[in-house]
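User: For documentation purposes, I need each entry recorded in a consistent format: the amino acid sequence on its own, followed directly by the corresponding structure tokens. There are two entries in this batch. Please keep commentary to a minimum and don't merge the entries.

Assistant: Recorded as requested. Entry 1:
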Amino acid sequence: MALLNFTTSRALSRMRMPAQTPRPDAALEAFLTGYSIEVMPRTANKIDDFRALLPAGTRVYIAHIDGTPIDDMVATARRIAGQGFPVMPHFPARLIADRAMLADWIARYQGEAGVTQALLLAGGLAAPKGAFENSMQLLDTGLFDRAGFTRLHVAGHPEGNRDIAPDGGDAALLDALRWKQAFRDRSDAAMAIVTQFCFEAAPAIAWAERLAAEGIDLPIHLGVAGPAKLQTLIKFAVACGVGPSLRVLQRRARDVTKLVQPHEPTALLADLAAHKAAHPQSGITAAHLFPLGGIQATADWMHNHAGAAGRPAVAVS
């Protein structure tokens, strides 16, 4: 308090000025409007109130990792939904023992958390634990339509998926997407593709153009890794099978001075935003953020770069 008495009014005014952030690029702000983010129960537990971090209406995916109890998944969905956000839990086919377990999960998510959206995917296991091996089998049960789910998303892999196509080809991946698009056409639920994260725009854009050429018009929500240490990103990228765009990180790793600095998605998102602005018909319609360096770090980046698209639902004093 005594220090303030010795501060001139002009200096005090400067001290009270909020930190200035660069004016967001209009294309980037437009592209990031309506972005989604992915959390896990253990990472979500570190956040007291998502309203102080995320814009109103942000879709929050909840990843279901092998070993996570369904009780934890439902509790996380209930808490985040209670703060006003649409929640989209993962349904990993290879973790689900049978139809009865799937029906129970759907009923619990709906009854305890009001969930009406789901991401269906095979899951990270090499072999299924029960009756289901892929997301098409989950869809084919009819349980999601019967429960009145309004939105069903499926996984996409711009740089391939050797779990589905060991030879590195894309024929099986395209066939699966055609099947899912046909399901979309006979379902009341809206559908979209949510992709694995990548680090370079060109492969993702080329993949989207390939889908369009093949007649696949499911909207694409492109996965992007949030700010994180380079070592963290490389670890996740290798574990998740990220393809050629990994070279972006490998080039950066050659500069030892950058190893301890967070790698940010600024250049990637700028390239994607510019492409979308120039090609509004592109199937890439939204960004899906993987906060590999922490939810807070990703939200901070959005606040500083995305303008209104990153403004949290509740202002932080």
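Entry 2:
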Amino acid sequence: MPTTHLTRQTKRCTISIVLAVVSLAAALVAAEVLLRLAVPPLDRDLSAMRLAAARREGLSFDPRTTLEVLEDLRAEGIPAFPPVKPFNFLRRTLSIEGREVVPLAGVANATTVFNANETGEHFVYQSDEYGFHNPPGLHLVGNVDITVIGDSFAQGVAVRSDQNIASLLRDRYPQTLNLGMGASGPLIELAILHEYARPLQPRIVLWLYYEANDLSDVMKESQNDILAGYLSGPPAPMLRKLAAPLNRALIDFSNDMLKSYKKSLATARPEPSRFVACLTLAETRRRIASVLGNTSHSPRDELKKSDRDLDLLRRVIRTACDWTEGWGGQFVFVYLPEFARFSDRWDLCADSLRRPEVLAVLEAEGIATIDLLPVFQRHDDPKTLFPFRLPGHYNATGYRLVAETILHGLPPPAESVPE
């Protein structure tokens, strides 16, 4: 009798444990599902969100990958290339005629397929004779009205070539040169200013600053000795003179990069389905790891441990302004806000939290500034300035608002004098 009683007790205990484990597992999976529904997904899911938004709005959306677009263009006999970004050379250099250089632009005179499709159309453009996003023939000494310096927002990612900031400025300032390059931060941009704008001495330099990542970028870029050298008495500009051999090297680099990417795709393990990801609590584990990795300090605290990033930014902007004013030009800093400013569902990037400090640096240095954040905030619905009301670059309406605000704050253009 005691043995029977013990056996029944053991069975009840086992059943209770199994039920508890099953209930806990079900609760965790339910929490995973709710987390995925309630909290914005990772960046890799933005493409799916854009596609779904396009379908809801009855808009066409090109489902091809960047690689597929490239291969389709090449199959048609068009020499298309992926974007070669200066960021690719932070830990390497190219040897051009015995000199080690950091390339600051893409392949020249080529169809460039940027790795971005935020509107339903891939960002494809024809590069100019130095690899920037311009019509040909704008790199004229003494005949440039405006030079636009910046990252992918300056470059015009996500819109057609006639809808980016520089193109819109050309309506009033025909000789506007776009020197924007994706994934570039302030130190790369200073190098671009020195190599490609300084010899031309533009009347106005517009320095576009994207609040979400430029402070972090300047720290990464400062680890490169060649880029850091632009802050301490750089040599005379040379990349324009090395254009032909540099472009040949960039074509080889681009093709090698494409081959490596294809090889990595062939050997990559497929991502698990959403069902499997939910069962393995992928999102829950990722967010727990993220929290545990930041238990001792917030992003703002981490950045405030040192003001080296702010000091680097100050030095870069001061140098750029001094160069510009040295040839009789006008330097204007343009502050660009990120999407998270206008949505409760997305967290502000750590760099964006430093806005008051960045503006304080500009004020202390006496830098002329056009601040787009209050302009966006006054808009009836700022999220409509971004494709499908989702994080990313501005849409055509957003870029036009930026261009119009800049034009409102600039003097009338001077008469252009042919070279």
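Summary note for entry 2:
Residues 39-43, 293-305 have pLDDT under 50 and may be disordered.
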